[in-house]
Amino acid sequence: MWILLSFLYAITNAIYTTYNDKRHYNGYILGIWRGFGIAFCILPFATTVTWQLSWDYWSILIVQGILIGIYDSHIFFASSKYSGHACSGFMTTSVLITTFLWWALEINEFKNLLQSPHYFLTLMILLIGYTISFWQMMKVHISKQAEKYLYPAVLALALMSIATRYIALRGGSTTDGIIYYLTVSCFISGFFNSLMFIKEQHQQTIEKKDQYARLPNLKEGSWLILFSTILIIAKTIALRLAPNPGYVVAILLTSPLFTGVIQHQNITITPAILLTYSLLIALLILVSHC
Hints:
Number of strands: 0
Structural class: mainly alpha
Oligomer: single chain
């Protein structure tokens, strides 16, 4: 189930990373639409959950909102300037960051893996091989400027994946955790992007203010809210069920293939693509039987 939901996450992420390719809206404005829009649409369901949450759970929800704000604005600005294909491709480095960060936080899981040296060695070969292969396959699409700009998004994605897993596991039921995420964290992300947009406007000239303040219409904004909500639900459940959040991020890297389909590109099956996704299939077979 977590593998299927991770692929749904990858499909909706392909839409997300290409959303601003041709629209060229201000990334902060789209982050505001996405954050506040999701929070207010889900708000009626907030009455179905209890809100007696511990301070550390509230802290995770708030930090998650800030990370979403950082990630959203960087992806939306980068997809407008560099293309969503480059954005989804550069996320490859998040796989190893997420995987090892999770093991560092949950050291007992890492120790249990070390009890089976052959399994651990195979896992490392597949993870590292997949990451390197994917990077080699995608780096031709990524400029140095895009790399530099997307570094914060890479780190934010890794931390968001960890935080999402904690939100899902410690929020009671799966549904409760999703509602906490969609209301609190998304609202915080909208608030964060509002502050960043105000700061940006103060730093720009009057001429640029008019250009960058252009708002999406209701149809575009509603579409953004809809697929983003599906993305978050699929991601949250997948990260709750998966053995390690890094494995979900590994499947997320199939997004460039779905991006090509969305943009009606001709997808040529090269040896690099075959190797990359063969390693992914082997990784999923291995971890699904652990």
